[in-house]
Amino acid sequence: MGLTLTHKILESHLVSGKLIPGEEIAIKIDQTLTQDATGTMAYLEFEAIGIDRVKTEVSVSYVDHNILQTDFRNADDHKFLLSVAKRYGIWFSKPGNGICHQVHLERFAKPGKTLLGSDSHTPTAGGCGMIAIGAGGLDVAMAMAGKPFYLKMPKIVGVYLYGKLQPWVSARDIALYLLSKLTVKGGLGKVLEYFGPGTKTLTVPERGTLCNLGTEMGATTSIFPSDEITLSWLKAQDRVEDFVELKPDEDAKYDEIIEIDLSKIEPLCACPSSPDNVKRVTEEAGKPVAQVIIGSCANSSLKDLLIVSKVLERYKVHPDVSFEINPGSLQVLENLLALSGLKNILKGGTRIHQCGCLGCIGMGQAPPTNSISLRTFTRNFPGRSGTIPDFVYLVSPETAVASAIKGVITDPRELGDYPEIILPEKFIINDSLLVPPLPEEEAKKVEIVRGPNIVPLPHFDPLPEDLKGVFLLKVGDNITTDHIMPAGAKILPLRSNLPAISEYVYRNVDPEFSNKALEVKNKGLAVGIVGGENYGQGSSREHAALAPRYLGVRIKLAKSFARIHRSNLINFGILPLVFENKDDYNKIEPGDTFIIKNIRKALLEGEKKVKITIKGKEEIPAILELSQRERNCILAGSLLNLAKE
Ligand code: MIC
Ligand code: SF4
User: Fold this and answer.
1) pLDDT given at position 643
2) Which of 171, 392, 467, 615 is the most exposed place for a label (fewest CB within 10 A)?
3) Nearest to 367 by CA among 303, 423, 302, 323
4) What is the per-residue DSSP string for 424-440?
5) Could you tell me if the CB of 413 is within 6 A of ligand 1?
6) Closest-approaching ligand to the CA atom of 37
C-alpha cells in the first residue's frame, strides 16, 4: 500500500511508536523556532535542562511579537534572547527582520525535515514540504536538547486540489472555504496533506498561507509536496542545495479525502468573531469599514503586497479608512521597493508599519469603537484586537484592498481586470538582521544578560495523593488561549515574569479569577476549571497552562481539548480530564467543591477512568486518556521535574 508524504517523513524521523492513528509516537526534530513571546520562557526552561549547546541542525530565535519598547522590560528581554542565542548556538532574528514563519519559509525551511516551533502557526513551513508542528515552549526546549517530540499519530487527510483559482480569488479563500467545512475543530488529530494538479498552481508562500491556516482548523500540521515550485522558491532564495523532491506514492492511502475544485472558490470572509464564521464576501458587501490591515504570518508575502500595489496604482484609499500594511519580512519590504511596488502603496494613502506581528497579537492597531476592521490575519477571536467588543473580519489581501478603496466591504472582482503579478526569479536577499550562531568555543564565553523582568521559574510540587478543591470557573465551547491568558501591549511584556502575568488569567471572563484562585490555593486546596468542546484552541502559549498552575489550578475538566493546550497542561502537571458523559457538564456550577480520591494511585496503575465527587455527594466519571509518559509527567508535577528525576 502506498505511503502518504506525511508517513514518509514521519517514518524517517520515528524514534518510538507505530504510525497508527491515535498511538503515541516520538519523532526526531531537525529544526526548532521560537519567537520572543514564548521564547523567553522556552529558553529559561532550556537552561533548566542544563545542556551546553543545542543539538538540532538549526534552531532560530525570532523577535517579532513584542517589538513595542514601552519601557526597559521588552528591550531587556531582547538582550536576554540575543545572549542566549549566542551562548547556545542558535540563530537570532533581530526585531524588524520579520515574522518568524515568513522568515523561516524564506531562509530555513527545508523539504523532508522536521520543525518544532513554540508558535501555533509553525505549520506554515509545510508549504516548503516539511513536517512543521507548533508546540509549547517546554517541548521546544526539550527538542533543542536533542530529545524527541511526542505526539499522537494523527489521521492523514488528503486534500485533493484540482482546477485553478479565478482572478481575484487567492489562497486565503481556499483556507476560508476549508474552515467553513471543517470548523475550528474539524482538523483535530489530523494532518492536512495537499496533493493533486491544483497544487501546481500555488507558489510556496501561497502554500504557506494554506498550511498556516490549517492551525485554525485545529490540525496538527499541513503539508505540500516538494516539487518544481518548491525548487523555484529555493532557487529564488539562493538555497537550491536544500531542495529534494518529495511526493506521496501514486497509490497513497489517506484516512479521508477532501476534494476541492479551485475554480469554484469565491472570495470569502470570516465574520466576527471566529475564523470559521465564514460567509461569501458578497453577503457582507456594503458594510462600512474603518480599518483595513494587510499583515500577519498568513498573508504578508511579496505577492500579497504586490497585488495591493497594483490596485493602488489605479485607485486611492477611501478617506474614512485607515489602511495599514505590516510587511511579513525585511525581504518582502526590500523586494517590494526594488520592484517599485512601494511607490504606489505610499501614493495610494497607506500607513506602513515595521515588519512583525503588531496588531495581530494586539500590539497596537486596535480598531475604533463599534466599527468594522478587515484584516488578512489568522484569528479574529473576541477582543484579540484590543477593542472590546470588536468586529474583526478575516479576508484575503484582494478583498482587503478592494474594501479599503471603496470604504465598504467589497468583492474584489468588482475591480475589473486582474493585474499581472510577476515574482522575481531571484529575490534580493538581505540577512543583515540575522545573527548566525557562534562557534562552540566562543559561545562558551558568552554571559547571559538577565534584566529584572526575567524571573526564574518556580518549583512545581508533585501531584498529591487526593485532589481536593473548588471549581472556580465554568466556560463554554471553543474557549481560546486568548480567553485564558490574554495578550496585547499591557500583558505581553510579562511573558518572562510568571507571578506578574498570572494576575491576568481569565481577566476578560472573570476579572476576579486570579484573586479567587490564590485564595483557594492558600487554603491548601486545588483549583478546577470546567470547559466545553475544543478547550484551549488557538495559540501555543504555555502561559495559558503555566500561569493557571501558578494560581493553583490542578484539574481542567472539559468535553474535549485542543492538542497544544492539552500537552501544555500535562507539561505543567495539570490534569486534563474529559467528561465521560457530556451531559454531566450541566451538573457542575462555579463554586462547587470536588474530591478525587487516590488520584496518584489511579495514574500509577494506569486506570482509564476516575470518579470526581462533586459537592460532597454526586459522583461524575471522567476519562483519563493519558499515555504512560504523560502520567509520569503529571505525577512529577511538571515535565521539568520529570526530566530532572
Ligand atoms: C498567536 O497568534 O496567538 C501567537 C501570539 O502567535 C501565539 C503565540 C503566543 O501566544 O506567543 C501562537 O499562535 O502560538
Ligand atoms: Fe504573529 Fe499573528 Fe502569526 Fe501569531 S498569528 S505568529 S501573532 S502574525
Assistant:
1) 86
2) 615
3) 323
4) -SS-----TTEEPPPPH
5) no
6) 1
